[in-house]
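#struct-pred
JK: can someone run the complex with adenosine-5'-triphosphate? inputs below
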Amino acid sequence: MNVIETKELTKVYGDLVAVDNISFEVRKGEIFALLGPNGAGKTTTVEMLEMIRKPTSGEIYLFGDKPNEKIKERIGVLPQEFQSFERLTVRETLLYFSSLYKNSVDVDELIELIDLNEKRDELYKNLSSGLKQRVGVAIALVNDPDLVFLDEPTTGLDPSARRNLWEVIKNLKRQGKTIFLTTHYMEEAEYLADRVAIMNKGKIIDIGEPNELIEKHGGKPKVKIWGINELEGYEYKKMKGGIEIVIENEKEISSIISSLDAKKIKFERIEIERANLEDVFIKLTGRRLADESNN
Ligand SMILES: Nc1ncnc2c1ncn2[C@@H]1O[C@H](COP(=O)(O)OP(=O)(O)OP(=O)(O)O)[C@@H](O)[C@H]1O
Ligand SMILES: [Mg+2]
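RT: done, structure tokens with the ligand placed:
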């Protein structure tokens, strides 16, 4: 079953087509990532799905229905650049948000689930950015939603806080929740997402499993061997300081190594080069996904 379906969804702000005629499905239980650079239209898309913003045109179906008030009880939202009440503790914050819903989860169980036990009585303002984001995810879960929207959940976090949050998100999937994630980090999409939609300038350029997209657009893996300038029996290309062999599949790596070994060929270094989603993005759009100075 599809939890989300959009048909020709479009949002125009004045002269700007922020979301340009996009159609996609999100399947039950998957982590779906919308991957794109700043200004691609990710938040606008998410906000339309969350029923915060009205589409200019096109259709949205959530759990098979047109958006309606009842559906709000089944969705959870972590907005981009989320902030909460500075002077409430973690537990007070979650108690407040859960009081807004008819059906809400047990706050102490939620604290346990999101691994905030040690910080339950800490004021929000005293938490690290990683823990603040975790409170945000916990708030998104107070109504025990089936579908959770996380808009750039790890932007601005240090690598270890980012990894911690990735595990929290994987855990939500294990609980059977459907996750709609936006990100401009290709590693995040590659690590977390079952399927990725690549978005640029309001358009979705391609959708698929990360590996599928990499195979389709990223080209074949290459074995690079430094310190030799030929290898009989293989089709190779010379590069500075060594040779490069394009391979069809990973099994060929061991055959190349055995061949070097059998021929007693001494080499300096061997490296496997695989494409990643960043390469896919560059191939499809001619631009880089994330500017490191701008995250
Ligand atoms: N309320 C608004 N009014 C006018 N223009 C807007 C509005 N909200 C967003 N935009 C514009 O629409 C485009 C898409 O913005 P959006 O926030 O959806 O992108 P994004 O992919 O979420 O970017 P980011 O990675 O920076 O969060 C941008 O050019 C933005 O400036
Ligand atoms: Mg955004």
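RT: quick notes.
The pocket of adenosine-5'-triphosphate (ligand 1) is lined by residues 13, 16, 18, 36, 38-44, 80, 184 (CB under 6 Å).
The chain has nine helices and 13 strands.
JK: thanks, will look after standup
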